[in-house]
Amino acid sequence: MSRFYVGSEVGQLRKVLLHRPDLALRRLTPTNCEDLLFDDVLRIEKAGEEHLAFQQVLRKEGVEVLLLKDLLTETLANPAAKAWVLDRQINEYRYGPALAKEVRLFLENMDDTELASYLLGGLTVNELQSTSGSPTLGMLQQTDFILDPIPNHLFTRDTSCWVYGGVSVNPMAKAARKRETVHLRAIYKFHPLFQQSPFHTYYGDTDRNYDQATLEGGDVLVLGRGTVLIGMSERTTPQGVENLTRALFKAGQASKVIALQLPKARSCMHLDTVFTQMDVDCFTYYPDIMKGNNCWEMTPGDNGEIAFQQINDGFIKAISRALDLDTLRMVPTGGDVFEAEREQWNDANNVLAIRPGTVVTYERNVYTIENMQKAGIEVLTIPGEDLGRGRGGARCMSCPLERDDI
Q: Which residues are named in the active-site annotation (predicted)?
């Protein structure tokens, strides 16, 4: 029986979810890339080669790699799952009754592999080959999207995050990413792997408007020993943090949540773009952004409420206390002020731990890698000349499904 449990950031990584996008990246152009949250277009073949190299490093280290497209395809083989997914993406209010009926029928008649490709990669007007005469359709160009591509599925960390014995299926902040959640909800609800293993679902798995309570997994660090660190960033709000915290405490899966205020800046999109854990007592960080941050500790209160306490001695001390450590080893982004800014932009601090003291990162961040190695960290490198243009490193591109405690 499969086991889904993530007890830390650095315990032995055993199972991980990745996504190698293809069609979605082929749809990415200079005209639409900003709307789709990319800073640039990627070379498709090169990005694919680099992602395959990432997969190979993980497998060589004994990590089981599951791929999102495979899981979605297998999920869609269940007629109830297929109907559930389409119900949440095709409706009369989005398309108008005539076009909605036609799009639904077109997608229903695809085989599971083809349907997964279009759900992930987008569907254009000319691919639909409509005969409905719908005015909604008549106002679109042949190359306009009926279903937008979702290239950000590449960053599996954000859409769902496993915290101890359960998962949060996150209400995403940006419109370009909201459909991602439907796919992960469907996989966790219908795929046989997940049906065979009991787990908690903390947050996000209901059909509702979550309003301002958005949350993304790049801001959630499972420190271990019952503690979770969450950044309040460009994408994750205090409202989202409080709702997840309440659910964690109600399920008895965490005893403390540390919430950290971050600048609302593209360079600090998520906490893990400036701060990640490499060993039980060792973190990498970008100094320019990690100064003077407001911080709160949340613990279970009476009658299911949360007890809040603002921290005055900084989040590093709060982490030390939570992990019962006297000091932490802090490894800064490498190089001079210009080199450090470039390397942080290229995800130098966004590393994925395989086990305590061993991390995966982009090979291009040479100065930060040097700092890590000096601190005794084993660094496994992957190419990222094209993958890195999406502004996400090894941690962003991975959703751990099974990881040991510390």
A: 396 (amidino-cysteine intermediate)
CATH number at residue 309: 3.75.10.10
**Are the beta carbons of 353 and 10 closer than 8 angstroms?**
yes
Which residue carries 């990162």 as its tokens? 361
Spans in the chain with pLDDT lower than 70:
1-2, 23-45, 265-267, 290, 292, 388-391
Contact (CB, 8 A) for 9 and 199? no
Which residues belong to the active site?
A: 396
By the 10 Å C-beta count (0-12 exposed, 13-18 middle, 19+ buried), 80 is classed as exposed
Please choose, from the candidates 315, 218, 214, 200, the residue with its C-alpha nearest in 3D space to the C-alpha of residue 254.
Answer: 200
Final residue of a structural domain among 147, 182, 212 = 147
What is the residue range of 165's domain? 5-64+151-403
Domain boundary among the residues 147, 178, 198 is at 147
Paired residues of 355 in beta bridges = 358
Give residues with Cβ within 8 angstroms of 302, minimum separation 6.
none
Instruction: Looking at the structure, tell me whether residues 214 and 164 fall in a common domain.
Output: yes
Instruction: Specify the pTM.
Output: 0.92
DSSP per-residue codes, 100-166 = HHHHHHHHHTS-HHHHHHHHHH-EEHHHH---S--HHHHTS-TTSEEE---GGGG-HHHHEEEEBTE
